[in-house]
Structures are given as C-alpha cells and as structure tokens.
Amino acid sequence: MCTEPSAFGARCTFPLNEFPHAHKVLLSTDEIENLPQPDPRTDGFLPFVVNRLRIAQPFIESAGHTIRFAVARGPLNIASYLMGVSEFLTSMLMEPEKIEALLKKITSFLKNWLNLQREIFPSIDGILLLDDIIGFMGENEFLHFGLPYFKELFDTDVSVKFLHNDAPCKISAPYLPEMRVNLFNMGFEISLNELKTLTKNQVTLLGNIPPRDVLAAGDETEIIRVTTHLLDSLEDCSRIILSCGGGMPPGVSTKNLTAFIRTVKQYTHFKNLSE
User: Fold this and answer.
1) Hey, what domains does the chain have and what are their CATH numbers?
2) pLDDT tens for each residue of 11-22
C-alpha cells in the first residue's frame, strides 16, 4: 500500500509483523496544486519494485510462471493515503474542484506507472487496480469522482482488466462493464449470485470464501463445509473463479489451501456447469 504514495513523498512506516502505512502528505486542499507529478522511473519505491521484479523474473519463469499484470492502487485509494480517508471524502463534497484536480494528477501518474510496467515486462497482458474507497461513496459521488477515472485507466489494450474492491460494492458493481472491468474480486459479504445480477453476468467474479475467518482461521472441515455451501448456492457457475473474497490474509496454511482446491476440483456439479 506504500508503493504509489511513496512516489508523492509520503513517509512510510514498516512496523514489525504489521502492515506498512503511508502517512499523509497533504494537510489541506490548498496544497494539491503544488503536489509534484511523480516520475515512476525514479520516484519513491517504484524503481525498487520494478528492480525486484527484474531480479525475480528468471526464478518466476523457471518455475513455469510469467509476469502477467501491471499492478497499482487505484486513484481514490492513493488520494485517501495522501490526504487521509475522512479528509478526502469530506473534501470531495466540500471542495469538489480541488479533488478533481488531485484525481486527475494521480490518474495521469498511474497511466505512466502502468505503462512503465508493461514496457519493462512485455509478457504483461493485464491490469490490476486495487481500490476499496469506491465502497465508501454514494452513487452520485462514484459517478463523478470514480467512474471517469477508472474508465480512463482501464481503457487500454490488455486482455484482463481486473479490479479489487472488498469494501461494499452494490453501488459500483452495476458500472463494472462500463468501466471495462472484466474480472472483479469482491468482499465476501455479498453473494456471487447477487453480483451476477448486478453486473448482468458480464464480468468474471473472483471469490468468495471469507479470507480471515475461514481460509486462515478455519480447519480443514470448516474449509470443506464453507466451500461446498458456496458451490451448492451458485445458480450459474459460468464466469466464476473460486477464491477468497478479498486479499489473501496472513496465516493461511498450505493444508487449508489444499483442502479448498481439492473440494472445488471434486465438486462434480461445478465442474460440469463451468465446462
């Protein structure tokens, strides 16, 4: 979460055995105008991220894998780090013109950052944006401050346009096809059946096992029970990739992952319908 904010000058803290945190850069909206436009080739942690991938690339490929995605936090997510979540959402309503200027600056930076990753790793054929802040917005705010910028970022010639938002998504989900998103990772609080309806089954859905309480904290019996229940509940198995609803949490054991994968593979109903 510190990668993109660091390019804007955010001080980043890395506590032991905790997630890192990027501290605020903008103490008022008056500072947005003077916020520098970062260069992804030189600024913040971005060159280190790219170089780490370069070093890892031969090992990735020798294991039979390939670097497929250009990855970044979304524009709203980055803005919330630079300002603070409450300050960003409040300013969105109180000073919309200044927030628009900030989002345009961040979106321009993100296009350069995603293009740089694609330039360095030609095997990339997908974009992954992670942005939970769209789950904290009403529909009018999303249409004004979210939709245009995501449409601009996903308007590119890659095969997979992947969005992660594990905050509430009922407001934004119907607009995923318009955003050009064709793969979506949601939070586990919403059912895949409901998301299929909201997206008119035009988006492949990646989920929807609870990540912390089941995949990490559950035992093998719980994994099998919850996975089977999810599969039993599906009205249509097309356009679904079974996974956890949200990011993979710390502490997920190989044993639990194996139980999850085995349960899906052995579920004949899912196999037949998905084929």
Assistant:
1) 1-168 (3.20.20.210), 182-275 (no CATH)
2) 999 999 888 999
